[in-house]
Amino acid sequence: MPSRLLATLLIALFLPIVSLSAASPAGRWVGHWSSSSTGHQGPLRARIRAVDGNTYRAVFAGRFAKVIPFVYPAKLERVPGTYNRYRSSTRLPLLGEYRMTATVTPQHFNATFRGKQDVGVFRMSR
């Protein structure tokens, strides 16, 4: 009986760790972006690959004003002490510094971004 209890406790302790590691942003994502500052919005997709356990390289691509394409790379770094939160700071030509904070689940990538005169969200899924 004590060994069965021990096994149950070990499973209960390690099961959350397995699901925590499933929050990797690596892969392909599709969704949309919107700016609460300007009201602009459009389609968005991303391709993200792991650099190491805490760092990822992302390429975001979308459209602005329905017809103007954009593409920009970003380095996503895990927020220390978290398993599914990432942040990025990227300097974009003509737009300045953009900062992003993302929360990732196995199926969703939800982020907020902030620039010099812009604030908005990314909403993507696999």
Give a verbal description of the structure:
The protein is an alpha+beta fold and 126 residues long. It is 15% helix and 56% strand. The chain is built from one helix and eight strands, in the order H-E-E-E-E-E-E-E-E. About 12% of the residues have low confidence.
Helix content: 10-25%
Total beta strands: 8
Give me the Rg, rounded. Answer: 18 Å
Q: Averaged pLDDT, please? A: 86
Strand order of the largest sheet: 1-2-3-4-5-6-7-8
- Total DSSP helices: 1
Per the principal axes of the C-alpha atoms, what is the gross shape? Answer: globular
Largest sheet geometry: 8 strands, antiparallel, barrel
Assign the structural class, choosing from mainly alpha, mainly beta, alpha/beta, alpha+beta, or little secondary structure: alpha+beta
- Compressed to H and E, one letter per element, the order equals HEEEEEEEE
Distance between the termini: 43 Å
Q: Which spans have pLDDT < 50 for at least 5 consecutive residues?
A: 5-10, 12-20
Q: Into which percentage range does the β-strand content fall? A: over 45%
Q: What is the topology?
A:
Elements: H1 2-20, E1 27-35, E2 41-50, E3 55-64, E4 68-78, E5 85-92, E6 96-104, E7 108-114, E8 119-125
Antiparallel strand pairs: 1-2, 1-8, 2-3, 3-4, 4-5, 5-6, 6-7, 7-8
